[in-house]
């Protein structure tokens, strides 16, 4: 969901969300958070025959992955019996949570009364519908898992077991959560009344850069850099900060450019008082006044090795 409060025909209103007015974006992600495909909800999406709108979204996003024996993990808004049949006919499996009001579900499973740890399963035509009670009832569907149980030990219960369908779902569903979490860090979104600018920035900064970072760490396992460090290096590479020259400004040397002061050992920023601002304030009154009034910056001149704010650097170089 991309926050947007301007006028837009397909803007969504969801009172249960922190940001109530949003542009909805569907994403197809791998378990490690890589965004494989995305689609903007435009209010009136076409549907595929025999499928509802949520099922049509799944098929549209994963069309190029069908007929390859893959597994799709979906939440309860998308999962349905018709979608499972459609994907099974396309040599693709489905696993996901279910809403109890979905059509064609076996009533015996939906209405089963269970105690904690108990499960009730029904199978037909390679489709398994399971109801399992933990803290609350969970309704699941799968075309590749049966009614088997596996160990899922916790600190409180080392001998706890869960159905294989639940474990398979938790393993695959984490991808969309990781993607949303990574894209929320270092967000570039700003206020704008033009909706496609916000969507473009979100997709570039929230999906493309995160995808690049994941690919880099996978191809270079020895480095495994942080997301912030990757973004900083990417920006330096794009804008070529190190090789930037300012010959258009009189009195500027090619060896002088503004750079970040080396960070502390724990990675936090190191700040110093602007050299020029401090001297100006010291001339006006005294050193105590200058120490209080001079702003601290995290940038310095590469040649002078003195801290400068952007304004003072441009004026003196």
Task: Give structural notes.
Among the domains are: 66-175, no CATH class; 258-316, no CATH class. Helix content is 33%, strand content 20%. The chain has helices at residues 53-61, 81-89, 107-110, 164-184, 195-219, 227-239, 275-284, 287-293, 310-316, and strands at residues 2-3, 12-13, 21-23, 25-29, 35-40, 71-74, 93-97, 119-124, 127-133, 137-142, 149-151, 161-163, 258-260, 272-273, 296-297, 299-301. The strands form 6 sheets. It has a 5-stranded mixed β-sheet with strand order 6-7-10-9-8, sandwiched between helices. A 3-stranded antiparallel β-sheet has the order 1-3-2, with helices on one face. The chain has a two-stranded antiparallel sheet with strand order 4-5. Helix 4 (164-184) crosses helix 5 and helix 7 crosses helix 8 (287-293). It starts with a strand and ends with a helix.
What's the structural blueprint in terms of helices and strands?
Elements: E1 2-3, E2 12-13, E3 21-23, E4 25-29, E5 35-40, H1 53-61, E6 71-74, H2 81-89, E7 93-97, H3 107-110, E8 119-124, E9 127-133, E10 137-142, E11 149-151, E12 161-163, H4 164-184, H5 195-219, H6 227-239, E13 258-260, E14 272-273, H7 275-284, H8 287-293, E15 296-297, E16 299-301, H9 310-316
Parallel strand pairs: 6-7
Antiparallel strand pairs: 1-3, 2-3, 4-5, 7-10, 8-9, 9-10, 11-12, 13-16, 14-15
Helix pairs in contact: 4-5, 7-8
